[in-house]
Specification:
Elements: E1 4-5, H1 21-28, H2 37-45, H3 49-59, H4 68-83, E2 87-97, E3 101-111, E4 118-125, E5 133-138, H5 140-144, H6 148-153, E6 164-168, E7 179-182, H7 190-200, E8 204-207, H8 212-226, E9 230-234, E10 241-243, H9 253-263, H10 265-268, E11 273-278, H11 285-301, H12 303-308, E12 315-322, H13 338-349, E13 351-353, E14 360-362, E15 367-373, E16 383-385, H14 391-406, E17 418-422, E18 427-428, H15 433-436, E19 442-445, H16 466-483
Parallel strand pairs: 4-12, 4-15, 7-8, 15-19, 16-17
Antiparallel strand pairs: 1-18, 2-3, 3-12, 5-10, 5-11, 6-8, 6-9, 13-14
Length: 490
């Protein structure tokens, strides 16, 4: 997802292109409304956990850029925004990546009013982390050619040895159709199994085998002694895979294959051998399916309020779903936040003439505030004030939480979410950086410390705390409603 670097980011007071003095004055002087308690209670009732769960069911899948799942999630988000009446803009571009080559990225931007002079922007990313695993996929013939000691010594973790199944050809001679499992025996002890099946007529017998050599010898002996009246079979391998360990993850399939062949002559003689990559990717609930669901849920539950300000050309709202936040190999300036870097550069070039002031400004300059949501959805989250330039907006979030708490409207929680403490000493690398470096005010809603489930298979639906999500949804509804001066009740 992201990494942390200890480095202060100096934000200058002037924008890069044009002075836009009147616009900056409007942004600096913007004062949100303060909702009365009755309106806050009304906003709390505008909840739709059913829709939130529906979103999660559709997007909580591995969604690595370039995969079919990623395309499914893209289609779902754009479709939902369109159904809710938002203008949908897609920022599509290609870029080279390590591991997966050249990929197509698609930022999704939902715009309430495309002609507005200023925007409050809510953002998150919708892609998930790519993980790579090398797995040796073997056929039975390959496994059969490998002695047990070879499996242990040549970086191969597991083996699959079939058992021998002996069953009557004429099932009417047996008193039952059940199969009795016998412990491993040596080929010389086959008479034990023969006497057992002939004397008791208890159906079939399955004999465990300790090695491939035992399988072959037992099968041959059983056919010779019982072949007329009994079927002699090998049980099928349930999982004919052997995992590779101890190899450099950067090696290609062919290099890994050749390395194993060099270590084991038996494999080298066997043509039924290949190495393939099996990609095991997390579903990434908190990183960041839940933030995506929160933003879509906001568009749904506040639809009456949003519809009432759609024609407002002074101030409006954008919902940005960044693509390609995750690194494909090692996090760095060229392998991370692909979508955010591209959109920030694009917005920095796009020129507009403001309706209200007549000034020529960029799309970046039109952003009042970028609120980035990440690693949200589990319990016990703590948000801090990371940037002095947006301290007043962090305080507004904390105030909204306190008001809900004082009114007894918050669902049970074990911690206060917005900690009134500054954390200016370091900066978390995330999608906000290209905007911050171009002087866009940022409010970063990401918890510290990072949840322990981050970038693990445990980042799934099981860790979503619905109460925490609902509480944060309420806080976000209050903040957005107050910032945009929306009427709660007509």
């Amino acid at each position: 997802m992201m990494s942390i670097f200890i480095k202060s980011v100096f934000v200058i007071s002037a924008f890069g292109i044009g002075t836009a003095n009147q616009l900056k004055k409007l942004q600096h002087n913007h004062t949100p409304q303060r909702l009365p308690n009755g309106d806050i209670r009304q906003l709390v009732t505008q909840s739709n956990i059913k829709y939130f769960n529906e979103i999660i069911d559709n997007i909580l899948i591995p969604r690595v850029v370039g995969t079919k799942n990623h395309e499914k999630v893209f289609d779902y988000i754009t479709s939902e925004l369109d159904k809710l009446g938002w203008n949908v803009e897609v920022d599509e571009f290609e870029e080279d990546t390590p591991k997966l080559g050249r990929l197509t990225f698609k930022n999704i931007v939902g715009v309430l009013n495309s002609n507005a002079d200023r925007y409050l922007v809510l953002a998150c990313h919708y892609d998930s982390k790519y993980f790579e695993r090398e797995v040796f996929v073997a056929t039975y013939a390959t496994v059969a050619s490998m002695p047990t000691n070879s499996l242990k010594q040549k970086n191969l973790q597991t083996k699959n040895i079939p058992n021998i199944l002996i069953k009557p050809k004429n099932t009417q001679e047996a008193t039952t159709t059940k199969t009795e499992l016998m412990d491993a025996i040596k080929p010389s002890q086959l008479n034990i199994a023969i006497k057992k099946i002939q004397s008791t007529k208890k159906g079939s017998i399955e004999i465990k085998c300790n090695s491939i050599q035992d399988v072959q010898k037992l099968k041959k002996a059983a056919v010779e002694k019982l072949g007329v009246s009994y079927q002699i079979e090998e049980t099928k391998l349930k999982n004919p895979q052997i995992k590779i360990t101890g190899f450099d993850k950067n090696m290609t399939n062919i290099e890994v294959e050749q390395a194993i062949k060099n270590q084991n002559n038996l494999i080298a003689e066997n043509e039924l051998f290949e190495v393939v990559h099996i990609k095991t990717n997390t579903k990434s609930a908190i990183d960041s399916a839940v933030p995506c669901a929160m933003m879509l849920n906001l568009a749904k539950v506040l639809k009456p309020q949003f519809d009432s300000i759609k024609s407002n050309s002074d101030l409006s709202l954008k919902l940005v779903f960044f693509d390609g936040e995750e690194a494909f190999d090692q996090w760095g300036p060229r392998d991370s936040i692909y979508g955010a870097r591209h959109l920030a550069a694009k917005y920095n070039k796009n020129q507009n003439v403001l309706r209200s002031t007549g000034e020529s400004v960029t799309d970046l300059q039109k952003i009042d505030l970028l609120i980035l949501l990440d690693l949200i959805g589990h319990s016990n989250v703590n948000f801090y004030n990371y940037f002095p330039e947006t301290s007043r907006w962090f305080k507004r979030m904390a105030d909204a939480e306190d008001r809900l708490d004082n009114l007894g409207l918050l669902k049970p929680r074990s911690t206060k979410y917005f900690v009134r403490r500054d954390y200016f000493g370091g900066n978390i690398e995330d999608d906000h950086l290209p905007f911050l470096r171009k002087n866009v005010p940022v409010l970063h809603l990401i918890p510290l410390p990072f949840p322990k489930q981050w970038h693990t298979p445990k980042d799934n639906k099981d860790i979503i705390d619905v109460n925490a999500v609902e509480n944060l949804n309420m806080i976000l509804r209050i903040f957005v409603t107050e910032y945009l001066h929306m009427l709660v009740r007509n």
